[in-house]
UniProtKB/TrEMBL annotation:
Alphabetized PANTHER family for the sequence: ATP SYNTHASE SUBUNIT A
Highest rank taxon of the organism: Bacteria
Pfam families with a match to the protein in the record: ATP-synt_A
Keywords recorded for this protein, A-Z: ATP synthesis, Cell membrane, CF(0), Hydrogen ion transport, Ion transport, Membrane, Transmembrane, Transmembrane helix, Transport
Name under which the protein is recorded: ATP synthase subunit a
First-listed, main subcellular location of the protein, grouped into a coarse class: membrane
Transmembrane residue ranges: 48-66, 105-124, 136-155, 175-194, 200-221
Keyword Cell membrane (UniProt): yes
Record's bilayer topology term: Multi-pass membrane protein
Location(s), subcellular: Cell membrane; Membrane
Organism: Leucobacter alluvii
Length: 274
């Protein structure tokens, strides 16, 4: 029943509804909803911005409830909060950066992982049905934070050598730097933030469009199709159900990959040759 409700919320907008016997495919307009609060001000908010604010409040509330009364023998809520935090601390921060540097950058990595996860998962939450990371603003901000963080880490470790070693790798013949240096500059200082942004945004954007397409097709076949064509609605609903489960995996995986790559970039910036 929850999945059916989710499907109905997905196809609720007129843009995706099957009207007068016609099928309307999803378009990019879903990612640019009308302003609903504070229109005409710098604080104007549309549906996606409201989802972002809502999920940040929910995330902070969950961790506050889980950690407000820390005990030697943890409660169930405390245990869940500790397990979630330890996942980032152990499997991302300490595994890649070691205990000392892992502790330094743990707050950023933790905030990235859980905020991305929270906003990714809204893509399958009934009534929300769109990921807060499927529009470029939030992924771009996080990519900028990642970019500034690994550059800061490198400069802090080796103020005079970070950019030199990043652009002029040791052991390369000087004549080859004409080719190597532009490649290193593009790959390190341009490709990294661009790929972080696009990987996160495009996975959630495409996932949303596929879900809407499948459930809109289900509605069309079941309510507008005739005879044998109604059976296609069963197939599209089944694919939609499976893909909904797949979107949960994508939501977790993309949060993990973003935090992991940020940790990798920091680790490279802290490498001994710098």
């Amino acid at each position: 029943m929850a999945l059916f409700a989710n499907a109905m919320h997905l196809v609720a907008p007129v843009l995706f509804a099957a009207e007068e016997g016609e099928f309307h495919a999803p378009t990019m307009a879903e990612f640019f909803p009308d302003i609903v609060l504070f229109e005409g001000t710098p604080f104007a908010m549309n549906r996606i911005m409201m989802i972002r604010v809502l999920m940040m409040v929910v995330l902070l509330l969950l961790f506050w409830l889980g950690t407000r009364r820390m005990r030697v023998i943890p409660t169930r809520g405390q245990s869940l909060a500790e397990m979630a935090l330890d996942f980032v601390r152990v499997n991302i921060a300490e595994d890649l950066l070691g205990k000392k540097d892992g502790r330094r950058f743990l707050p950023i990595l933790t905030a990235m992982f859980f905020s991305i996860l929270a906003l990714n998962i809204t893509g399958i939450v009934p009534g929300l049905n769109i990921a807060g990371t499927s529009v470029i603003g939030y992924p771009l901000v996080l990519a900028a934070v990642s970019y500034v963080t690994f550059i800061y880490a490198g400069i802090k470790k080796s103020p005079g050598n970070f950019f030199k070693n990043a652009l002029f790798p040791a052991g390369v013949p000087k004549a080859i730097y004409i080719i190597v240096t532009p490649i290193e500059f593009i790959s390190t200082f341009i490709i990294r933030p661009v790929t972080l942004t696009l990987r996160l945004m495009m996975n959630l954007l495409v996932g949303h469009l596929l879900l809407v397409l499948l459930f809109a097709a289900t509605q069309f076949f079941l309510f507008s199709g005739e005879g044998f064509f109604k059976l296609f609605g069963v197939g599209t609903f089944a694919f939609g159900a499976v893909f909904t489960l797949f979107e949960i995996l994508v939501a977790v995986l993309q949060a993990y990959v973003f935090a992991l790559l940020t940790a990798v970039y920091i680790q490279l910036a802290l490498a001994e040759e710098h």
